[in-house]
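User: Fold this; tokens only.

Assistant: Input:
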Amino acid sequence: MEATNTRIIAVANEKGGVGKTVMVINLGAALSNKGSYFVHVP
């Protein structure tokens, strides 16, 4: 079994309308550009 470099990143804020979704999409795009895989689970 191979070791993996899996990281879990959580983005949270109790207040609504602070741009969490936009930040997560931009983070995913940046990670993808660096060659990483990205999964967004709402």
